[in-house]
Design brief:
Length: 174
């Protein structure tokens, strides 16, 4: 171990020269004359941050969505909406899974009708936001969901008829 230390010190080139004359005085002068930077008052910074946060919360609440949906009316209506949305999404998946050249036109027509019903539903949402909890608006929203389901069921029925017709044609051809 002692050999390693001896080797280290003998191989390492240390700066052992004396500094120039007056070095200590120059160093102490630099320490004493160090420029003092501007000290930021944390009280002012915390007050400014608080104001910015309050302003942000106020703006966030002011511009927040103020539209009511069917789910906002009551817990029961939330269940109804969840049921319809889940069923419609499931039906849409089934329709998309059966998409082919023969069914393309029927599916596109149904999707256009669903888009129109979605626009009508958004009008119901605006009316509900303006006028509040009115039975006619709620009934219209539920009816809108029912119409969407009816369209999707009709499309699935038409697609099934096309498939059956295609199977019959193939059997007749054979």
């Amino acid at each position: 171990m002692k050999d390693k230390f001896d080797d280290f010190f003998s191989e390492t080139d240390f700066d052992i020269k004396m500094p120039h004359e007056g070095h200590l005085e120059r160093f102490q002068n630099k320490l004493n004359n160090r420029k003092k930077g501007k000290v930021i008052s944390w009280k002012w910074m915390s007050a400014a941050a608080s104001i910015v946060l309050c302003l942000g919360f106020w703006l966030g609440n002011t511009h927040q969505k103020k539209e009511f949906d069917l789910a906002d009316v009551s817990p029961k209506m939330e269940e109804v909406q969840s049921y319809f949305v889940a069923t419609i999404n499931q039906e849409l998946k089934e329709v998309e899974a059966t998409r082919s050249l023969e069914t393309e036109a029927i599916i596109e027509q149904a999707l256009d009708e669903l888009e129109e019903l979605e626009e009508t539903y958004q009008l119901f949402v605006k009316e509900l936001s303006k006028k509040g909890n009115q039975q006619q608006i709620i009934a219209g929203m539920i009816g809108n969901y029912q119409q969407r389901l009816q369209i999707l069921e009709n499309v699935m029925h038409q697609i099934q008829l096309i498939k059956n017709l295609k199977i019959l044609e193939n059997e007749t051809f054979i």
